[in-house]
Amino acid sequence: MANLALPTSHYNERYVVRRLLDAVARLDYPRDKLTIQVLDDSTDETSEIVAARVAALRATGLDIQHIRRANRNGFKAGALAYGLERLTSEYVAVLDADFVPPPSFLRDIIPHMVADPSIGMVQSRWGHLNANGNMLTRGQAMALDGHFVVEQVGRNRSGWLINFNGSGGVWRTAAIHDAGGWTDETLTEDLDLSYRAQLKGWKFLYLPSVVVPGELPPDLAAYKQQQARWAKGGTQCMVLLLGKIWRSPRLTFTQRVMATAHLAQYMNAVLMIVLLVLTPPVLILTRMENMPLGPLGLAGLGPPLVYLVSQHALYPNWKQRFLHFPALMAIGTGLAWNNCLAVLSGLFQKKGEFKRTPKYAINRTIDSSYRLAGDWTIVIEALFSVYALMGALIAMRLSPTLVIYLGIYCFAFGVVALWGISETVKVRRSLRVETATSR
């Protein structure tokens, strides 16, 4: 077997990091060929937990290193680059703290890379540790299933560019160096490096049969923060890489078009907000009597079919699971304003603070310092819900075709706003209780 390093990067993940280290220790891979780096930028008791567990695992003969930096420069990308400088392994597997790799993870992937030296990265499919936690996690699970079962499979089999998803993948070290290494130019270092490596000619392989389960954020505030980071980082990558993509002699025209669509996907959030704002006044002024709105109904079948296919492909009880589609629709549409702000920031701002997504080891009782409260966007989302409702009432009289369209906006923004208000009240109540108890 080939020499391999497994860096795990985390920041203040005291609830999940031990679970990850125990899973890594169970990996079915020759210990004399495996080096584990625990890249720990934590500022809380996570570091003490890691130090104790690393010492215990090292006593069993595992080559595991607890690596601390003097600062948090570059955030996750900086930590990975710091660890890479201290490695000589041919391959590098990357796992986030909230993932639990199965024992066969490395043995399922490495043979593909050994057999084909042109493969620079192999990505596994994400599973879900807490898909049934609440409405939010059910919606997230379906969204990710659609990405990993339909989008990643379709892109990879069509020869289009795909991305490393940030966790659950294995890189060839030479590909990382050839592409310029991990950088903090964007908030999505995984997407950035993926495209730079493929522009250098490295092939990527996606293996949907290899599943690495991870934990989904159960709180809306944490999920909104995660999505904002992905939206801003993805937009930064679009600004940074589109010129290189269209100038690359390695890519076909179709590859360039699909890469553009991939990198620009979060621009949909901006378009959604623009369309919502414009629809009622345009409806009043023109009644949209001569607009061919019928085909839009057919186009609207696309997203449900994608997620229906993914549920059918993965689960015997796919019919029951597909009933959670309204939850996906709520977060997919209801986060449009949250993601719109992130996209606009990504268009004009380089880098930015990497705000971690809090994880709680699924069902553990946690203190409120790890929970996030809602922010001012809740107010805007509530106003958008009311605005969409008013638009739907106008449409009932002037253009009934648009009632469902505006009704979806009303429902989605309303759900997100109410969920956010509920979470904020709970977090603030918990803070008051903890403050009173500590006195």
Could you say what the CATH architecture of the domain at 1-115 is?
A: Alpha-Beta Complex
Radius of gyration: 23 Å
Number of contiguous helices? 17
In the sheet with the most strands, the strands line up as: 3-2-1-4-6-5-7
**How much of the sequence is in beta strands?**
5-15%
SSE string = EHEHEHEHEHEHHEHHHHHHHHHH
CATH class of the domain at 1-115: Alpha Beta
What's the assembly state of these chains? single chain
Output the structural class. Answer: alpha/beta
Largest sheet: 7 strands, mixed
Average pLDDT number: 91
CATH superfamily of the domain at 1-115: Spore Coat Polysaccharide Biosynthesis Protein SpsA, Chain A
Short description:
With 439 residues, the chain is α/β, with parallel strands linked by helices. Helix content is 56%, strand content 12%. The radius of gyration is 23 Å and the shape is globular.
Structure write-up:
With 439 residues, the chain is an alpha/beta fold. The protein has 17 helices and seven strands. The chain has a domain at 1-115: Spore Coat Polysaccharide Biosynthesis Protein SpsA, Chain A. 56% of the residues lie in helices and 12% in strands. Helix 2 links the parallel strand 2 (34-40) and strand 3. It starts with a strand and ends with a helix. The model has no long low-confidence stretch (mean pLDDT 91).
